Amino acid sequence: DAVTGARSVDFGDDGAHEARVYRRELLDPGVTISGPAVIEEDAFATIVPPRYEATVDPFGNLVIPVEGSGP
Fold first, then answer.
1. Residue 26, helix vs strand vs coil
2. Residue 68, helix vs strand vs coil
3. CB within 8 A of 67, min separation 6: which ones?
4. pLDDT tens track for 13-25
């Protein structure tokens, strides 16, 4: 399972939210993760804010629409 736990993340004006934590290498293409979430790799982490989604494309990239083009 790609979910490894949860932690509180402070999103500034949006306040603190409980965010699921995922291991990126365990996410298959086509998977969509709804924020709030933390996607961890060995060298860094990707933060998915509340009301946003991250999708793994066919090449393994994380796609997160920016404000104005997303949800």
1. helix
2. coil
3. none
4. 999 999 999 999 9
